Prior knowledge:
The protein is of the alpha+beta class. Helix content is about 30%, strand content about 25%.
Amino acid sequence: xxxxxxxxxxxxxxxxxxxxxxxxxxxxxxxxxxxxxxxxxxxxxxxxxxxxxxxxxxxxxxxxxxxxxxxxxxxxxxxxxxxxxxxxxxxxxxxxxxxxxxxxxxxxxxxxxxxxxxxxxxxxxxxxxxxxxxxxxxxxxxxxxx
Length: 146
């Protein structure tokens, strides 16, 4: 099932990647167990993370999507090499309606808040690490089946 989620999300952002000439480099081992999660909600979250990564990336760059098993969890990691998130805002980005001041990001400021709700509602968690000028790494962790 992790493969289905990844394939859906990558296909969903295909137009965005083509417009900015961004490649999504995917690492997905063939031997991963299924993930105990709602496939549609999880695919929506990964799509949202990829879309954000593309939006904040420079043209002709890349985004990494890595899926791996870590202990009893399946982790989906989306990494970009864009402008990053200032440390002052890192604790606020999952708040509803929060948008980084001065950001030209269009939208409601709900995507990350909904993503967090979807993942935590399935017993998982979502984290972020970021460095200004280097990029951001979002990790979604959900229980593996079995």
